[in-house]
Amino acid sequence: MIQPHGGSLINKELPKFEKDRILDEVDEFEKIQVKISTVKVIKNIAFGVFSPLEGFMNRNDYKYVLEHMYLENNVAWPIPIVLDITQDKANSFRINDKILLTDPKEIPIALMDVDDIYEYNKKEFAEKVYGTLDRNHPGVDSVFKMKDKLLGGEIFLINEPRSVYPELDLKPIETRVLFKQKKWDRVVAFQTRNPPHLGHEYIQKAGLTYVDGLFINPVIGKKKIGDFLDEIIIKAYQALIDEYYPKDRVVLSTFETEMMYAGPKEAIFHAIARKNFGCDHIIIGRDHAGVGDYYGPYDAHKIFDQFPDLGIEPIKFRSFSKCSKCNAVVNDKICPHPPEMQNFFAGTEIRKALQSGKPPDPEVMRPEVAKVILNYKNPFVT
Amino acid sequence: MSEDEHKVEYSTVSIPKPLVNKIKERMKGTGFSSVSSYVTYVLRQVLSSIEQEERSKEAFTKEEEEKVKQRLRDLGYID
């Protein structure tokens, strides 16, 4: 099986006796209350989804990542993982302090060793990660809403945050044992934030044809208005797998993280996380993790050429469609027929049908999937 | 910390001149702007293949594996 990114799977969960000791001394620590999306980051660091990260980046890693898409120790990493704090908080901490990170309900989540407190330039962050300063880009807007200072340092998990879907919440060590148990050496990951249509099914099955197993890994977490609700994505996939997939070749599990819509750089980030889950291939489609028209449709394909040492291989798919002449789902590389013979699985058309309460054409979306979505009065994030 | 201290550090490596000339030939039409960036890319590729050869090494111990299997059974992922 593929090695974790950077060579070893990070585990920052403290043993029970140490957790208990810290929880007994809770009042002695300075605290920072973090938002839910940061709680998810802490959990992902602690259980190795973000291996080799062991905490929030210090200024050197932050700078290296922004400038080179590599960590200071020369391991590929495309997007800074940072903890922002107010100037007031920054003034109250010193290097080597141990502070407690709590969730929005003030439940202690992790202990952090303060290694660095530093300033950063929001414009530089946004420009280098997202390639734009347009506040209409949700990622850029998030950067400009960040607090003014960054805190770097190792974290130690003391309370595992509750998952929204515990039965589908597998950690990298669990997926790795599962793949080993299934005797899968080569696994292809599929990243998604949408319920599946037949085009998705086609690329997943095409990818699966060449490896031992398919790891469907929807992103669960804060998304932009108009995206599908997490619950619908999960139920839709469960319905699809039940009816149309070989059960011994597919694993469905969630990836709890916030979408950043960083396009090509997020494609690399998604690939690294899936490598840590034990996948050696990842499907990268058209405009992966994109939003609006900030990125070219195949920028997320091209960026992989800059990383000869990523380990996980992208399986790059171009646009796909249902060709009326071939009577099959095809892509532009394998089908010679003109656009007027192609049904392109247009998201807007599918949405329009669903919003009017009608199932989309069964040649575009499986009736079982459409049924799941139509059971909801409003299937979208509002 | 000053801006200068943020800059990425580099080391100089000596490469025999004939090899440098060969690299320059090989680089033509690749889009690489310098011998250094080309050599960095190639070294990353080489180190990555060495790491790939170590694939057989497990990322977990036997004890951890048994514990995880129980949870996977409880969740219905394995029988």
Report the CATH superfamily of the largest domain in chain A: HUPs
Estimate percent helicity of chain B.
Answer: 55-70%
Q: How many structural units, i.e. domains of chain A?
A: 2
Helix/strand-derived category of chain B reads: mainly alpha
Strand content of chain B: under 5%
Radius of gyration of chain A: 21 Å
Using the coordinates shown, work out and report the CATH topology of the largest domain in chain A.
Answer: Rossmann fold
Largest interface: A-B, 33 and 27 residues
Mean pLDDT of chain B: 82
Work out the strand percent of chain A: 15-25%
Roughly how many Å is the radius of gyration of chain B? 23 Å
What kind of oligomer do you see? heterodimer
Task: Outline the structure in words.
The complex is a heterodimer of chains A (382) and B (79). With 382 residues, chain A is of the alpha/beta class. Chain A folds into 2 domains: 16-157, Sulfate adenylyltransferase (Roll), CATH 3.10.400; 166-374, HUPs (Rossmann fold, 3-Layer(aba) Sandwich). Chain A has 13 helices and 16 strands. In chain A, strands 1, 2, 3, 4, 5, 6 and 7 form a 7-stranded mixed sheet that branches. In chain A, strands 8, 9, 10, 11, 12 and 13 form a 6-stranded parallel sheet that branches. In chain A, strand 4 (98-102) and strand 5 form a beta hairpin. The longest helix of chain A has 15 residues, at 230-244. Chain A starts with 15 loop residues before the first helix and ends in an 8-residue tail after the last helix. The model of chain A has no long low-confidence stretch (mean pLDDT 93). By secondary structure, chain B is mainly alpha-helical. Chain B has a domain at 7-53. Helix content of chain B is 61%, strand content 0%. Chain B contains 4 helices and no strands. Chain B is elongated, with a radius of gyration of 23 Å. Chain A binds chain B through residues 1-4, 7-9, 59-60, 63-64, 67-68, 74, 118, 167, 170, 172-174, 176-178, 180-182, 251, 278, 307-311, and chain B through 1, 6, 8, 41-42, 44-45, 47-48, 51-52, 54-55, 57-60, 64-65, 68-69, 71-72, 75-78.
